[in-house]
Each structure stands twice: as structure tokens, then as C-alpha cells.
Amino acid sequence: MADTQAKSLFTADLMVPAIKASFLKLDPRQLVRNPVMFVTACVALLLTLLLNSGGDGLSGGFKIQLVIWLWLTVLFGTFAEALAEGRGKAQAASLRATKAELTAKRLKNGRTDQVAASQLRAGELVLVGTGDLIPADGEVVEGVASVNEAAITGESAPVIREAGGDRSAVTAGTRVISDQITVRVTADPGQGFLDRMIALVEGAERQKTPNEVALTILLVGLTIIFLIAVGTVPAFAHYAGGAIPVVVLSALLITLIPTTIAALLSAIGIAGMDRLVRFNVLAKSGRAVEAAGDVDVLLLDKTGTITIGDRQASEFRAVGGTTEAELAEAALLASLADETPEGRSIVALARDLFDLQRPLPTGAEVIPFTAQTRVSGIRFDTTLIQKGAVDSILRANPGTGETAAATELRRITDEIARAGGTPLAVAKDGRLLGATFLKDVVKAGIRERFGELRQMGIRTVMITGDNPLTAAAIAAEAGVDDFLAQTTPEDKLALIRQEQAGGKLVAMCGDGTNDAPALAQADVGVAMNTGTQAAREAGNMVDLDSDPTKLIEVVGLGKQLLMTRGALTTFSVANDVAKYFAIIPAMFVVLYPGLSVLNVMALGSPNSAILSAIIFNALIIPALVPLALKGVAYRPMGAGPLLRRNLLIYGLGGLVAPFIGIKLIDLVINAAGLA
Amino acid sequence: MTIQGWLLIAAFLGILLALTKPMGLWLHALYEGRRTPLHLALGPVERGFYRLSGIDPDREQSWRGYAIHMLIFSAVTTLFTYAVLRLQAFLPLNTPGLAGIGPDGAFNTAISFATNTNWQWYSGEAAMSNLSQMLGLAIHNFLSAAVGISLAFALFRGFARRESGTIGNFWADLTRVTLYLLLPICVVYALVLIAGGVPQTLTQQVTATTLEGAQQTIALGPVASQEAIKMLGTNGGGFYNGNSAHPFENPSDWTNLLQMLSIFTIGFGLTWLFGKAVGNTRQGWAILSAMIVLFLVGVTVAYGAEATGNPVLHQLGVPGGNMEGKEVRFGIAASALFSVVTTAASCGAVNAMLDSFTPLGGLVPLFNMQLGEVVVGGVGAGIYGFLLFAILAVFVAGLMVGRTPEYVGKKIEAREVKLAVLAIAVLPLIILGGTAVASVVPAGLAGPLNNGPHGFSEILYAFTSSVGNNGSAFAGLTAGTPFYNGLLGVAMWLGRLFVIVPMLAIAGSLAAKKHTPASAGSFPTTGGLWIGLLIGIILILGGLTFLPSLALGPIADHLSMIRGQLF
């Protein structure tokens, strides 16, 4: 899972097991899941059995070659699937090893007993101490601990997990590195996150996604149509007073049915999921990945996604005759002991603007921020400096509310809010000094990203708890299409429902328990791994890095998966034209010699034409495996230009490529005297 | 090819394009059940129908209800015609005292007219009484056309509606289309044809004395009234065996042009209506553009082949184009255009002997029908057939823009793909399957007049024309045998049923879906790219299936002709 570096596809450690697996996958019970390849295998088997029967005037060598290439067509298909699964298999093995060694200290009736993790049931309590592996998914109900989640996320920096709040979820297989916590188990054996991950990366429980099902139906339909087209040829030939050998008919059938896309279809799906996994996002179903490609509206939390999480002090605005330097000094002193990013940015700004260097005064008493007073500060000698939201400062200093300074302060704070900032008022010994302008810093490059999304037809909506003034300013700066200010979880849910009622698909990310209903309602709900268990259960994807910006990339990966499928389908269907022109003249020239003019590729002989078409049909599968596994190149652009580009490459390319390919193969065959 | 020939083709298309929007607007009023100026006079008639039959036109039906009512209606009217034809000898308006039609023949003809195919194994003036022509056959010319247009309405509603369980009322659609569209136009049209020299009388025959003094019996009848709906409803069943080559059906070059125009005009209008119904007329124009491109390719090939003529005859000192089997009053261009128009549009009318066309000239009508007659197509049937291809085109290529495929705001998913594939796969199954049977069994082999690839073309054409519900005959094939009557009758019935029922199921499934508003990320279904894609998909999915059969038929025929061998 830590493997974020893209490995080369064709290393020996992936190839060898894949080649082995491709033979195992010839098991008819597995093969029948892919009807097109099943038909190919049946035809290959039929021809193998008919190898010894003569009477069709074809040389044994030609027939043997044909049979070999037919089997190779099937094998290339199973190989593509095996190769796609291979990478996941290795990861699954290491995850399984982690799982096997899990034991738990179960708390029952006030006593602990040691049991295997597999015996834990949802609702039971377990004690996890320093150095222990957490035995099951659950929620911290008591204590706080730092946990190393590298086994799951690949990130070795420990994270804090604590009872209550939005960081209470813990995952089986992660290690507590300090302190002790009591965890209530939330998943029964086999249902946990680890189990799901193993199943996911292994592709064992892979179900066909809706779109894959529809595509399979189309491919089966095409196969039936071509079975009819080829199956009626003997009767037509009989009318014309001839007979077409079964071998030749089989070759025509196999080249016409969409073997290329059928062989690569499941590999494309597995690889798409795998790309997501390597991106440290776990999708609970393939359906979710497809939905990501369809998303019309992105709900993005302002903090952490659009702005960098922390506000930065950018200006000191003094009131009532106080100089800015005075205000800066007071703000600096009040922030010296404040380790929050905002506090540190105030210290930095005061130093930059006024070159102030002050150590913490000896004997100073730090007043911490509390939820009751909502004011923090410092007291030294006889001086008291306070900072906090304007209303809180006014409340903490009764009588200041009616002063002229207060009026001025209110005017200034309004201005700050309108500019997208947060005002932080400062008071010294009950006197209002002014406000610090805490600015929300919009992430670099985010505006361009939103521009790209707009081009792709995706609307972005910023979600923030800020007041509408601030929200509007930030929204304008970041270039989002819309915003929802002073949002409550209910607002989010309502917005999603409203968009969905208009036929839109909505994606969002969230972490808190109160996000869970919205995550569940959204078509793509990405839960942060640091979030609560409720959020992780509600979403259909989990981001192990807990990076909300990734939502945008997830959409891209969903689109890439669908595009790859579409591109290879188009390519496969377009290929048929050239194959017809190779085989039809070869097949019918004995009946009507005039039909040789249809041999536009000027292929050497009827036999070499048939063989070339079959070889091209087989070789195109491995040739396209890298594309199927890596996905087609994806660039954010509107549907029109995207279609033009892909239609040119895969539609026109699919029309032209086989003409060239078959001709080249034919030249080689004739030069080598193979037919 | 001549300038006049091309001018004719250009004028033909120009007039049609000018008529497209007016026709579309008229159809839109009927589609929505709105009042038209004609309601003043005909409104009471419509309401009278509903009252008599106890139909509430505002009570909408699910796709199943729509399909079941349509099928019951078709079954009952088919049986009615079967009875009329069988009992012809005992019914009035039978001056020459014609005998009843045999069971296989009546079976074939009843299905043929009820399915809008109008395949005719018989010679109209020699086999059918005036009552049979009017009550047994002409009635279907109206009703089968009205059914086709109603079905198109139902499918359009599927695309246009949002989260709806119904797709309209079959009886209301049928009544309105017949009453406010087909009947009024046909009344005027028939009068114009009469002015042009087409007979309209209940007298079944007159006897004339020829210049040599011989007695000749000339068949007459209510020709103009049947001729009008034969064209407008893309039926094609002629009053006379000679069809539109007969001077009483198609007296002059301007009636010929009028007939061709009337075949396409509703089909053109329906494309506009589709765009209007789904809220973007450009969607309709895009479909029409794709149709016109395919049409022009067909016209160019057919006209080119006919104008080039037969090299074997050239060597014998007979230069020029191929005039064999053509009426001199129409000439090559009008005959080639007529054949492409009628086969593109599921109208089985002919004004020349297709059997006598050059092989490539004959290939175009054949291929047009094998594509499923989606190039304009039969009234209603053409556009719904075309939309099936559009669904597949969107599905194949739509993924390439990175979204679940959607067409005019509706997501195309497994169910739609399954039904569209079913409808499209039935065509080759019956055409190729039927041809395969007929080219092996002795009863089938007894049919074709010619041998070699040309004879094969004759069989292939018969099945293609039947399954495609076209009804035009290549001629040359002796089709009035129990074998062909039975097999082709079944082929016509399956060809209609297995497209209509899946298509209605798609309509139902689409109607129930939400509408996805178009955005910059939606697959563009207007503009050149989409038109090109549609043409590509229709040619590859619809056409390639038939390449082996075409290679052994007209293509082999053509290549042999070049080498000096004729069949």
C-alpha cells in the first residue's frame, strides 16, 4: 500500500505468476464469465478436434498454425486479467499476514482476557496498549493515543486517536505507539476495513460494474450478430456451388467478434481500481469509481481544500489613536505562547513589519483559550492583553461596547470579513487596540484547477462555516462556481438532494459523524481516513491520506477508467472493417474469382490472408495490455475536444491500424513461407 | 450522369428541407395533443370515435399497455383483411368476379399490409377486387402508417419525459395522426393526382378497341386515393402490378417528383419533431444530416452505376446508361433516385424494374434496407430504427468522454443496450437465416428467375425487403408459392414485432429515468463529429453483417459483369 511509486508493468515478479495464472484461468467455469472469450475458446477447441480430419484441401501446417493462434488469443486475454490482478495479489498477501497475527485483550465484566482477533464481535470492548496492534475496526471510547497507520496508509508519521470528536476511528492492523485506549469494536470478523481492502486489491470479489455489464451485453450482442453472419455463409456458398472449410469460417468468426475489448475488459476494470488504491483511495465498489467519472457537482470544504487549513495574519488595523506598532506589539505578546498556526503567523508578521523581537516576559501568566470565555491572552506585571473574536473581547471587557473605538472596530471588522478574512480583536487592560487581519490563504493553483473542472462541465460548490461576506470573497478569489456559507450538516444534505433532483451527480468529502448522512446521500462520498467510523461507513470511498483535495483527482481517475473502456471498444469495433477485407476475398475467391479485387491489401494468398488476420487479432491484445492497465492519457478538457481527440486516435486509428498490421504480418508470413 | 439529373436530386432535397420544419410543427401539435385549425371541422369526429369506443384519450399508458393495445389492434385488423381477401368472391364491388385469395396468399398479404411492408406476390389488377383494394388493403395503408408514427411519438416521449411511468395513449395517437395528418393530406394529394391523370372511379374495367381493332380490357378503379397514401404512408403497395411505373399510377415526371417528395416528407418532419420534443432542434437536424449523407452516397452510387450502364452492351455497340427495365418518361436519374428514395424510406413502390438495374445500382436499394431502413425510413419506423443505432453509437463512443453514456439527457444503461441490440440483431437473423434456408431447400431454389449471383440477389432481396417491412420487389423471384408466401409472411411479422416491442420497452425505460442536464462534459450529440460517428456506427454495425451476402450477390454479379459475364 505504501507503494505509491508506479512499478513497471512487465517485471519478472509480476510476469511469471501472471503467465501461470493465465493457464489456470482457462477453467471453463471461469471462462464462461467472459462470453466472447468463451466462444473463442470453444472454436479453438473445435478446430483442435478437427485437426486430423482432412477433406477440406487445406494443409495441416496451416491448420495447426491457425489453432495455435486461436488458443493464444484466449491465453492473451486471461494473461491480461492475471497481470492486472497480480499487483493486488502481492499487497493482499502482506495485508493477510498482518491480519493473521492480530490478538486482542478483550474487556468483559471488568476483566481482560486474551483472544484471537477473529473471535471479536461488534459491540465488544478491547484494551489496546503501547506497542499493540489494534485488533479490529472500532471507535475509541476512552483515552487518547498516537497510532501508526503505516500498514494501511503507508504514512509512517503517527496520528492522534481520541475518544469523542471526529478522530475516534481506529483501524485493525494499525499500531498504538504511545498510551492506552479502550476501543469498542464496530465490525464483525470478515467485515472489517482490512478484509475489505484485501478483497479489493485482490479483485477476488470483483463484481461487474453497471457499465461493464452493459458493455458485456453489447459484446455478446455483436457476437450473436456475427455468429449469424458467419453461420449463414455455408448455405450461401452452397447456392454458389461451393463449400467453405470450417477452419476458414471459424477464422472469420473469431476475427469479427470483439475479442480485443472482451479480452481486456476485466483488466481495465481491475487496473482502474488499482490506480485508485495506489493513489491511497479505497473505493468500496467499482460502481463508485464509475460514478466519480459522471460527477456534475463537487462539494468542497473550504478549509483544507480551497484554502490552506490555517489562516495567516496579514495586517494590523489599529483603532482609537493606537499606532499599528503598538497593536502589533500587544498582539505579539498575546500570541507568544499560542502554538496554533494563526498565533505563530501573528508573531511572524509582527517581526516582519516592525522588527519586534520579544521573549516571553518572565513570570508571565498565559491565559488559555476556553470555550466559555472564547478569549486568550497573557498577563504579566500588571498588564493584561487579550485577543479573540470581536464580540468575545467586547463581552470580556464590559463597558467597551459603547465607546467610539468599538464603533470603529466594528467597521474595520466588517471590512475584513468582506475581504474574505477573519478579524481577531486585541485589547490591553480593557482598552480596545484594534484587530489583526487573519487572512484565508487560497491554495496556489486551485483557481486553475477549478477552471479545468468547469471545462469538463463540473460545477464546484464551496462549503464553509464562514459568514456569507467572507465566503463570497474567498469564493471569488478561488474561482468556485458557487458557495454555501454558514453551512450546517443539514444544509449540505439538502443541497445534495436538490442537485440530485435536478439529475446531477454529486461528490463530496467529509470526516465528521455529522457528515455521515450527506456522505451517504452523495453519489460519490469520500470519507477521510482520520474521520469517525460513522463517516467511513457512510462514504463509498475512503481516502487514506485524508486529503480533501484528492476529490478532484478521484473524478479524473473515474473518467479515465470509462475513457479507457470506451477507447478500446471503439478500437475493437473499428478493426472489423480491415478484417473483413482480409478474409472475405480469401474465402470467396474460389466461388467467384472476380472477388479478388476486394483484396485491397494485396495479401499474398488466401491462406496467408486468413492467417494474418488471425495473428493480428491475437497480437493486438498483448499490444494493448499496457494501455488497458495504465489507462488512456487523460487531460481535463471539454467533451467535444476530448471526443474529437479520442475518436481520431481510437476510431480512425482502429480503422487504419489493422490494414497496416495485417499487411505487415502477411509479408512476414509469405517471406517465411508459413502459408 | 447529367446536370439535369443532379438538378432533379438537388431540387428534390431543397423542397424537402423547406418542408421539414412546417411538417415538424404540425406533427408537434399532434404529438402534444394540441388543437389545430383542423379541429374545428374534425374535432367532433375525433371525440365521436372516442365516445363510440369508450376511450379516454387523456388516460396515458405504460409502455406495456401501449404495446399490448398496439399488438391487439394489429392482430384484429390483420385478421379482418385476411377474411376480406379469402371471402372476396362473395363480397360486393367485384365486377370481374374474381375468386377468393388462397390461404397462404391471404396470410402473406394481410401481414404484408398490416406491417406497412406491402410486399405483393400478386398482380393487383388481376387478383384484387375494388372492395379488397379499398377495405382490405388501403385501410392498412393508413393505419399501419399511423401506427408507425404513433410508435415514434411514444419513443420521443420516452426521451423527453422525466421520471414518468407512461408514454402516451395509443388510441389517441393513432386517431389524431390518421385524422389530422394522413387523411387531410391524402384528400388534397389524391385530387392533385387526379388532375395529373390518375384514375379515380368505382368502375373496375373498361374495354377499348385498339388501333389494330383488337379488344383490350383496361383495369380501372379508385387508384388516386390509394396512390396518395401509398406514398405518404411509405407503404408502396401498388394498385397495379406495374406499381409507379404504370402510367395510371404515375403519369408524368411531375407526379413522379411529387410521389418521391411525399415519401420523405413525414420522415423529414419527424426528425425535426424529435429535436423539438427533447428540447433542442439541433438534435433533430443532426439526425437528419446523417440520414441525408447516407442517402446522397446511395444516390450517387446508384445513379452512377445506372448512368454508366452495362459494359457488355457497350461492347456490342449499345452505348449509354442502363435503360433496361426503365420507363422512358422518367429516365435514369429519376428512376435511380426513386429506387433509393423508396428503399431508404421503407416504401415498396417502384417505378422501374430493380431486377434490371446494374448490380451496383441494385446493391444500393438492398443495402439501404439492410441498414434497417433508417435513412429517413418508413414513417415513424425510420426514426425509431435510427434512434436504436443512436443509442448504440452513444454507448460505444460515449464512454470516450469519460462519462456513463447519455443521449439527449438520458443515461444509456444495460437495459437500453440489451433491448437495442435485440432489435438490431433480429434483422440479420431473419434476413440471413431466411435467405440461407431459401438458398438450400428445393422450394426456395425454385424461386429465382436467374442463376448465379443475380439469382442469389433476388432471394436476398425478397427477405431483406420483407424483414425491413419495405415491400419493394426485385422482381424475377416467383414469390407467390406457399413456401415464399409463408416464410416471407413470417419474416415480415417478426421484422416488425421484434423491433417495435424492444423499442417501446426502451421508451418506457427512458421515460422513467431522470433527465441529466447537458454540460460542457456531456457527450455532444449535435455537430459534424456526432454525424460522422453515427454514420460510421450504422455502416459498421448495421452494414458489415451483410458483407458476405452482398459479396456473393450483387458484388460478385458486378465483378462478373466487368469481366463480361452476365447472369
TrEMBL record, chain A:
<comment type="subunit">
    <text>The system is composed of three essential subunits: KdpA, KdpB and KdpC.</text>
</comment>
<feature type="binding site">
    <location>
        <position position="342"/>
    </location>
    <ligand>
        <name>ATP</name>
    </ligand>
</feature>
<comment type="function">
    <text>Part of the high-affinity ATP-driven potassium transport (or Kdp) system, which catalyzes the hydrolysis of ATP coupled with the electrogenic transport of potassium into the cytoplasm. This subunit is responsible for energy coupling to the transport system and for the release of the potassium ions to the cytoplasm.</text>
</comment>
<keyword id="KW-0479">Metal-binding</keyword>
<keyword id="KW-0597">Phosphoprotein</keyword>
<dbReference type="InterPro" id="IPR059000">
    <property type="entry name" value="ATPase_P-type_domA"/>
</dbReference>
<keyword id="KW-0406">Ion transport</keyword>
<dbReference type="GO" id="GO:0016887">
    <property type="term" value="F:ATP hydrolysis activity"/>
</dbReference>
<dbReference type="InterPro" id="IPR006391">
    <property type="entry name" value="P-type_ATPase_bsu_IA"/>
</dbReference>
<feature type="binding site">
    <location>
        <position position="338"/>
    </location>
    <ligand>
        <name>ATP</name>
    </ligand>
</feature>
<feature type="active site" description="4-aspartylphosphate intermediate">
    <location>
        <position position="301"/>
    </location>
</feature>
<keyword id="KW-1133">Transmembrane helix</keyword>
<feature type="transmembrane region" description="Helical">
    <location>
        <begin position="35"/>
        <end position="54"/>
    </location>
</feature>
<feature type="transmembrane region" description="Helical">
    <location>
        <begin position="243"/>
        <end position="268"/>
    </location>
</feature>
<dbReference type="GO" id="GO:0008556">
    <property type="term" value="F:P-type potassium transmembrane transporter activity"/>
</dbReference>
<feature type="transmembrane region" description="Helical">
    <location>
        <begin position="580"/>
        <end position="603"/>
    </location>
</feature>
<keyword id="KW-0472">Membrane</keyword>
<dbReference type="InterPro" id="IPR036412">
    <property type="entry name" value="HAD-like_sf"/>
</dbReference>
<dbReference type="InterPro" id="IPR023299">
    <property type="entry name" value="ATPase_P-typ_cyto_dom_N"/>
</dbReference>
<dbReference type="GO" id="GO:0005886">
    <property type="term" value="C:plasma membrane"/>
</dbReference>
<comment type="similarity">
    <text>Belongs to the cation transport ATPase (P-type) (TC 3.A.3) family. Type IA subfamily.</text>
</comment>
<keyword id="KW-0633">Potassium transport</keyword>
TrEMBL record, chain B:
<dbReference type="Pfam" id="PF03814">
    <property type="entry name" value="KdpA"/>
</dbReference>
<feature type="transmembrane region" description="Helical">
    <location>
        <begin position="530"/>
        <end position="553"/>
    </location>
</feature>
<comment type="similarity">
    <text>Belongs to the KdpA family.</text>
</comment>
<keyword id="KW-1133">Transmembrane helix</keyword>
<keyword id="KW-0630">Potassium</keyword>
<keyword id="KW-0406">Ion transport</keyword>
<dbReference type="GO" id="GO:0030955">
    <property type="term" value="F:potassium ion binding"/>
</dbReference>
<protein>
    <recommendedName>
        <fullName>Potassium-transporting ATPase potassium-binding subunit</fullName>
    </recommendedName>
</protein>
<keyword id="KW-0472">Membrane</keyword>
<comment type="function">
    <text>Part of the high-affinity ATP-driven potassium transport (or Kdp) system, which catalyzes the hydrolysis of ATP coupled with the electrogenic transport of potassium into the cytoplasm. This subunit binds the extracellular potassium ions and delivers the ions to the membrane domain of KdpB through an intramembrane tunnel.</text>
</comment>
<comment type="subunit">
    <text>The system is composed of three essential subunits: KdpA, KdpB and KdpC.</text>
</comment>
<feature type="transmembrane region" description="Helical">
    <location>
        <begin position="66"/>
        <end position="85"/>
    </location>
</feature>
<feature type="transmembrane region" description="Helical">
    <location>
        <begin position="286"/>
        <end position="305"/>
    </location>
</feature>
<dbReference type="InterPro" id="IPR004623">
    <property type="entry name" value="KdpA"/>
</dbReference>
<feature type="transmembrane region" description="Helical">
    <location>
        <begin position="374"/>
        <end position="399"/>
    </location>
</feature>
<keyword id="KW-0812">Transmembrane</keyword>
<feature type="transmembrane region" description="Helical">
    <location>
        <begin position="419"/>
        <end position="439"/>
    </location>
</feature>
<feature type="transmembrane region" description="Helical">
    <location>
        <begin position="487"/>
        <end position="510"/>
    </location>
</feature>
<keyword id="KW-1003">Cell membrane</keyword>
<keyword id="KW-0813">Transport</keyword>
<feature type="transmembrane region" description="Helical">
    <location>
        <begin position="257"/>
        <end position="274"/>
    </location>
</feature>
<feature type="transmembrane region" description="Helical">
    <location>
        <begin position="6"/>
        <end position="27"/>
    </location>
</feature>
